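Appendix B, record 7
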Amino acid sequence: MKLPHFLSSYLKQSKELLETHDESRAMSLAVGGDYEAVGALEFCLLKQQGLQPQHTVIDAGCGSGRLATQLKDYLTGTYVGLDVVPELFRYAQQACGRSDWKFYQAPGTTIPERDASADFVTFFSVFTHLQHEEMYRYLADAKRVLKPGGKIVFSFLEFRIPSHWFIFEHSVKDTRPDKVLNQFIDRDMIREFASHLGLEIEEIHDGHIPHIALDRTVRWDSGQEMHGMGNLGQSVCVLRHARVGDTVASETGTDAVAVAAVTRPAPAPIALIADPTKATLPGCAVTFLSEDTLARRADIRFWDDPYATELKQPQLGESVGMKRYIVELDRSWTLDGHRCFLHPEAGFLADRAVEDREHAHLLLTDTDTNLAFDSESRGFIESRRPKLKVQLSGRVGVATSVEPSNWGSFLTRIVPKAIALRDQGCSKLLVYCVHPRQRELIRQIGWSDDQVIPLNPAYQYVMDTAVYPSEWTNGLYLHPTSLSLLHRLSEGLSISGGKRIYVTRKHGIAARSGRVCTNAEEVEAAMQALGLDVVTPDLLSVEEQIRLFASAELVVGPSGAGMFNAVFCRPGTALVDIESQPDWLWGHANLFSSIGLNFGMCLGDAETHTGEAHRPYRVDASALSDRVRNLL
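Structure tokens (predicted):
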């Protein structure tokens, strides 16, 4: 009978470690090393979550006992340690010397303990090695054994954390069929699992940001020490088995079936400071830069619709209005989510002057803020969910805005701020930059890694002085100053000119989207026949992307992140934007117009049987070729 992957791979690993190291070292390496340090962090985390000496703890994946050995002199209640490798849990049992505690071999993804018997169920470095279905089964059984109000605490890997990427790269290079699985989990999946299982997400913490209050100095094997606050490296999620009869808002804003014992305050009204330049605000200094009515630089030159779709050509106005300013905020203000600063008396401000008609849409793409628009009162409310507050000293540049994980939004809204803030003389930069290319671009601007503070939108931030520029775009129409700042990045690079490129979505991050071209091979072959080079921008370095688009005389490609690199193109560059859905037509047209491109749109035929936002589509390769020939 074939053994489960998590059993066969770990049995093999443990055997090899015991053959090549003494027992103590092998037992530490079997659970990832840093036996004492990680155990101390796990213990402090549980105490922070309310662990009491009389509680019952079920430690699924207890390993060789790094948590158990920390608990042995504290916990007077019951402890149960499960692991798939007998050598590991037997070592843990011996190391603890607690005859009243239970250790045994885990029978797959179930917990053979009584219903409603545990205060805590922990999965440290367990779900990192299981399939998603196995994780779900384990969570379901963990809920069964939890007392009402009990907590599940687990660690996990996620792509949004920069320090986790090297683990994925190592897994890619390790082609052994019997290697230990390294599994990544995204937060949307956690939310769905919790929702379906009737669990409440109480906290999620980024693995690379300190969030565990320490009652001791934690020393790592490398000699590094943690004082005051610490972190595991892996991200941490805390789920609660709600008590029957309680009610509270869930993560999605609707009433949960069952909720936490601690009742959260009801949402309170909060005022929007629509235009900081027209208000006198406590702890706030405003530097007004300009209020402009910008004449549109270019209009849509062609609109090719070979499939006679129902898409309507965007009607671009003759001018675009924009107000630019920079606010400096003291410690009485708190950054919440991606773009809003809150004040306990004054209300909140965003990174733009907000018109009345925009109120309902202001927070649609910021699901991490405590703020929400109340459709009944037509005003804003603050949920006051408890969040960890991070205190930052000194004068901190804040380069945040809406949808920072989107490469296009990052380029157009955030990068100009990051460049301008260097000109403001800030010593630190708070910015959301989880993707390697985002971090690379921030370095390209001139910010060193030790100056950059990665924004975690699950936290709130308080700064001695926060320097916060407004968004220097309007509907993706770039202010000339933003464009000038972006073009600075190509200064000093070798720009050859004359490049003709087709931007594909077949590879890289774009390939994960449902918006795929079903005849991509045909289209790319047609473009290559006309002399265009097929490129995947996110597989290139940032410098290579900038140089490529700055050197282009013709850019063709389907709308998406890669085409936003057109911000590095020179005015007059020809561009064919392949669009298949109505959602982004106006914004993309605004962007290309602000750059002064010779641009137009070729429409693809999107599948209509799916309700997904990103739908497969087909391109008329012959019609596209005709358009490209006209531009050559």
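Remarks on this record: The two ends are 64 Å apart (CA to CA). Residues 407-423 form the longest helix (17 residues).
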